[in-house]
Amino acid sequence: MRTYFQKLLTPSEQQKQLPLIYPLFIALLAGAIFSFALAPYHYWWLAILSPALLYACLHKRSAKQAFAIGWSYGIGLWFVGAFWLYTSIHVYGDTSAVLSVLMIAVMALVMGLFSAVQTWLYRRFFPETPLTFTPLWVLFEWAKTWVFTGFPWLFAGYAFTERYLDSYAPLFGVFGVSFVAIILACALVEILRRRIFWAIPSAVLLLGAWGASQLHFVEQKADKPLSVSLIQGNIPQDLKWLTEYQVKTLMIYAELSRSEWGRDLIVWPESSIPMFQTDIEPFLDAMKAQAQKTGTAWVTGIPYWDLPESERAQHPMYYNSIMATGEDASGLYKKQRLVPFGEYIPLSGLLSWVLPALQNDPSMSGFSRGAKDQKPLDIKSHPLGAAICYEVAYPNLTRRNAQQSDFLVTVSNDAWFTGTAGPLQHLQMVQMRAKENGRWFIRATNTGVTAFIDHNGHIVKQAPMDKTAVLRGDLPAMQGETLYMRLSDWPILGFSLFLLALGWMYRPRKVDVSFKSRR
User: What residues form the membrane-spanning segments (predicted)?
Assistant: First the structure.
């Protein structure tokens, strides 16, 4: 193994390559360790080491070999990094342990194709350099936000949330942070290959991170911060949608809120009201009256049946939504991005025999997608941008929701993934969205993590996980726009395409000849 690592780092063109099994194994291991760079482990340096190993494994490999190496990396990345899905599939999906693991393995095989195609393109069409490997990495991270409806998880940039490189986030978003991290990873390999000049751009990027940290795009408004209470009911997922438990769920949240009336804002989590608004109008009227009586705005997650839209569509239109009501509060936000296997079942008709327990869960198959560019909620004359659960994993969607807002709210129910890394990785994404947009984020969840996150992405307060809790705090209104809020992902995507165009134009002709000779 030591000999192989020496060969990986040797710049000689004449070296004899070892069998393909070596880079396949190292790539699989490199992908498997990547998720430990993220929450809750925070070994951020693995987000440098993991892609560095992949970059080194691709040295002088053919395009076909690169495809296999990249696929091996992707399988390790997704099987370990998204294994938190096991809880929702096995525990709450009533699926056997063996079949649950098999389903995650199939998911890893499919998602691993992103890395496979990425590395194939890299070795087929571009010269070996960090300036082609890195932009391809970033473009494929971006592709994960929309291909197959999107599964935007396990991005390199998230490893640096609240760490040195995160100062690039208000400028270029999480993909900008990923770009810098991957350049540094590849540069490390090049320096070990005695190409010392790569120390110069590395130093420039690190110095640039310090310079970016000195920039300030937003400032706090003169308005007094709102006093906010976030309610964490801790309702077990296997009881949440049972008809006989619905009234008890309402009583739990009502009792937790009893002492909070009189504060500016009370927030209940996603689907904390487990019934459609049409089935529970007396309760909603009573809560609205209580909120108005005490001068409080009330925001809650609720399944919403849009009757006028249903009549036009000639079939029921159900939405996972956030409703605002009470004193000086109004608005309804309908979720735009739904969670595969956590909220709905892709190809549910074909998979009904695999996940039988989920077929009768209204949160799994009955929701429609909300429209784009919805207006913020109106809270005490402040626009409150909203996101529900999985939506905060989509940088540009959250950016759109943040525009024209003073602060942001996300409600979630991560009880599907209790005891796993999933909820903490989810929280880390909220932190990055706060940093990107320069807005405070309040996060109310059923089981955790309920938190106040400031405009710099730092957690100010958080409630304990898997416990009933009320989290109180102040919510300042912010004004101004970050560069990312103005320009979205286009600067970093455009720069990546520019580098790839240069790489294509100035690729060595011998690279093309070498590929022809292998055919």
Answer: 20-37, 43-59, 66-86, 98-122, 134-156, 168-189, 196-217, 490-506
Range in 173-187, 251-265, 336-350 with the lowest mean pLDDT: 336-350
pLDDT tops 80 at residue 339: no
* pLDDT above 80 for 353: no
Select which of 128, 190, 260, 335 is catalytic: 335
Q: Confirm whether 299 is domain-assigned.
A: yes
Helix (H) or strand (E) segment spanning residue 48: helix 46-57
In a domain, 389, yes or no: yes
Question: Looking at the predicted structure, is the pLDDT value of residue 34 above 70?
Answer: yes
Q: What CATH number corresponds to the domain at position 428?
A: 3.60.110.10
Q: Are 240 and 197 in a shared domain? A: no
Angle at 237 between CA 402 and CA 111, to 5 degrees: 60
* pLDDT exceeds 80 at position 518: no
Answer yes or no: 57 catalytic. no
Q: Is residue 335 among the annotated active site residues?
A: yes
pTM of the shown model: 0.91
Q: Which domain holds residue 417?
A: 220-480
Tell me: do 28 and 102 sit in the same domain.
yes
Catalytic member of 389, 391, 436, 481 = 389
Q: Exposed, middle or buried, 413 (CB in 10 Å: 0-12/13-18/19+)?
A: buried
* Annotated catalytic residue, options 128, 141, 270, 481: 270
Q: Catalytic site residue 248?
A: no
Residue 4 lies in a domain: no
Contact 217/253 with Cβ under 8 angstroms? no
Alpha-carbon dihedral 234, 239, 241, 242, rounded to 10 degrees: -140
